[in-house]
Amino acid sequence: MKFFFVDDDRNVRTILNILIKERNLGECCGSASSGHDALDDIRVVKPDIIIVDLLMPEMDGISFVEEARKICPDSAFIMLSQVSSKELIAKAYEAGIHFFIQKPLNAVETESVIRNVAKSLSMQRTLGKVQSLFETEFRDSVPDESGSSQSETFQNRLTSILQKLGIIGEIGSRDIITLITYLHDHHETLEQQTLQKLLSHFSDNPKSIEQRIRRAALSGMVNLAHLGLEDYSNEVFTEFSNTLYNFEQVRKEMDYIRGKSDKHGNVKIRTFLNSLLAYCEHI
Fold first, then answer.
1. Whole-angstrom Cα distance, residue 157 to residue 280?
2. Pairing between strand 2-6 and 27-32?
3. CA 20 to 30 Å from 63, out of 39, 148, 200, 229?
4. For residue 188, what pLDDT is reported?
5. Tens of pLDDT, residues 186-203
6. Which domains does the chain have, with CATH numbers?
């Protein structure tokens, strides 16, 4: 991972540089004392993770992130600040940051956050590659040499994810497990046939199964939204709001829960199921 630091405090940039190198977290590809200078630099170095201060002269951190995302849409952003205002923190997340770290920096916390963001970014990129293969109806498949034991391991992963989403008790979760396991065992994807046709293998009423799956997936998104409201840095929230779900829709659900909007977030079931399949096969 390549890191870039944006902070008007040279000491903070130095501390981050030392932390990245000593903890073997990646490579420091550059730093800047202002948002304007950083925008010019990141066009060239294309960092994976950008760590930026919230309060800076001329261009604040939120404005910087909004502009930087246009230049480096695949980069992840971590924001630093002494400010503890929930409204300002929420605005920062809406601008596109992945984590918010309070100053003064704590080495253990900062390392943990960086590792989590790097892991999330790597997984997101992996899922993106897999999903692009889905779109062209290609997917590398490895023959199941270990028989039922491999299938059981896959189901354990799948069950663990549904538990983290808080939907393992939903009726639709059983349908999800059956469907995703079938796709995995037969080396198939949802791009190769319609959801209705696929579900007809398991029931004479595929529409009913689809509705149960939809309710379970929506419940998972609502649970994630609540986790994010309680703690933006919650590992389950950061792990799945950007992978299994569309983060913009999760954020929309968070706004609904806050009372800021009268519209719920929505879930594209095919995308959710494809992402879940890919995630289980690559963790």
1. 6
2. parallel
3. 229
4. 82
5. 888 777 677 888 888 787
6. 2-126 (3.40.50.2300), 138-282 (no CATH)
CB under 8 Å to 171, separation ≥6 — which residues? 212, 216
For residue range 202-257, list pLDDT tens digits in order.
877 888 889 999 999 999 999 999 998 888 778 889 889 888 998 889 989 998 99
The candidate with the shortest Cα–Cα distance to 126, out of 137, 115, 114, 118, is 118
- Identify which of 13, 14, 23, 26 has the alpha carbon closest to the alpha carbon of residue 109: 23
- Judge contact between 251 and 125, C-beta under 8 A: no
Nearest of 168, 141, 166, 172 to residue 156 by alpha carbon: 168
Distances (CA, A) of 2 to 26, 44, 78, 271: 6, 12, 13, 29
Question: Would you say the pTM of this structure is higher than 0.85?
Answer: no
* The two three-digit tokens of residue 190, written as one number: 């949802």
Look at residues 53, 52, 40, 68 and name the one whose alpha carbon lies nearest to residue 4.
52
**Phi-psi sector, 7: left (phi>0), alpha (psi -120 to 50), beta:** beta
Q: How far apart are CA 220 and CA 144, in angstroms?
A: 30
The owner of tokens 């903890």 is 23
